[in-house]
Fold these 2 entries.
Entry 1:
Amino acid sequence: MTPPEIKVDIEIGTRRAPGWRERLSAYVRLMRLNRPIGIYLLMWPALWALWLAGDGRPPWGIVLVFVTGVVLMRSAGCAINDYADRDFDGHVRRTRARPLAVGDIAPREAVGVFVTFSLLAFAMTVLALNWQTIAMSFVAVVLAAIYPFMKRFTHVPQVFLGGAFGWAVPMAFTAIDGQVPGYAWILFASAVIWALIYDTQYAMVDRDDDLKIGIKSTAILFGRWDRLVIGCLQVLMLVMLAVVGRAAELGWVYYAGLGAGALMSVYQQFLIRAREPRDCFAAFLNNNYFGMAIFLGLVLDYLLR
């Protein structure tokens, strides 16, 4: 009979290398293409800004550039996030099966994905947009690169995420108008606050694990005041979006969209009332419909003029 230790050596020696399907699946999971919620949350502020800057008729070529850029930069951001968290994800229930945590992807490969996709997004900007937008794209790359590491140093990494996700707003105005009006910066600030809202809900899912491994987040910072702070931020964001609507001279249809968004905010408060991880994650996902409601209000308001 073969000794147990020899059996182990034989099994290891004959282990089949992963095929191209397994490798492709690992890269898809690394970039979260199987979970597009991050693409949607990054997309909505960009679309809000494009429709406002284009007075309801943004150039379709620019829209295509921004939509493609969102997919590329979100994929790059996920890759660098997993690289930053490679020593922590294995200790968190929700992330322990991520490709770097289980060894399906090497750390250098994740960095390679980040660099490659960032360069693709930058090249597309250079080829299709004006020099002002090209200059602003450097800020977008820097924000995407530093955000994943901020949770080591500050309890408000969500602010950096908001900056990265919301930076598409001034870029959209620059791409279409060559300038960023005052109310566009209010829209950018509202996008930052929105990210602070939904990423705090997201962080509430992992709060217990994060406390154990020393990861910082607004969910930990806010503590038992988390629901109250989120509620105040939701009100503030809705007020700021109303100010944007007034500055852009939008009509009642846009405000109906804001009303729908307000109802969704109330629903999110209902979901997180007991701070159950599954319900907090459902509240996070519901923000996709919030962003959609604001966008539909914008589109329909311009169409019905």
Note: Residues 277-303 form the longest helix (27 residues).
Entry 2:
Amino acid sequence: MPLPTINLSNRQALITGGTQGIGRGIARHLAQANAQLYLTYKWGSANNDELIQECCRNGAPSPHILEADVAEPEDTRGLMQAIAEHTDAIDIFISNVAFAPRIEHLADYKKKSFFRAIEYSSWPIIAYLQAIERQFGRYPRYVIAISSDGPSHYYRGYDFVAATKALLEHFTRYLSIHLLPHGTCTNVVRFGTVQTDSFNTIFGKEFFDFAKKEGLDKEQILTTDDCGRAVLALCSGLLDSLNGQTVTLDYGVTFRDNLMMRYIDSKKEESND
């Protein structure tokens, strides 16, 4: 039985950090379902003309691309007012922005820097939902927080990012209780390794060459399109019984990434010699 076509016509979707990387992949797929997009950016954006062309294929409405710093309350207020010029509601909210300093040594742990990381990576889902309700009088139908497997797996220099992602997931679980009476589905999507410009900047492109040598197939590395399809599914109405959950997408790589699998692989190599 074929799956029904997902149609988000007349749905208004706000995606923070929606012009690059994972946010852009999500934007593409929500646009393909005809959602009206509001994409925020800070610290420079992608080529807007190119992004608009991506989103407008197949007759989808042109996205609104708006500059707003998620950690600045004044920017948040201005963003809501700007969106209100076009619509009277936000139906889908994707909290995607994360920022934290890279940690190399214990001496890099600074309380001020950590609190600033919380302002960017954990608190915006709270601040934006409060601002949405104040501006439009109701909460979105779907709220999705974008996380990573950092809280449960080691990544070099990822200390503050992992901590703030864990806090984001904690908030989201509690939000699912607070928002359910308002008809809102609230979930977290944890993505495994996604090859993006930001990943390459933090860890280096060489990581993927190493991963290949270690037996990780290219098909097991997430793409931004994989991320976009997953978020679209959560906004489709087909998974509305899913609420307050943290869903991990990683092709099962983290399950098999342990000493036992390495031992099994080594035995296979021995038998092939």
Note: The radius of gyration is 19 Å.
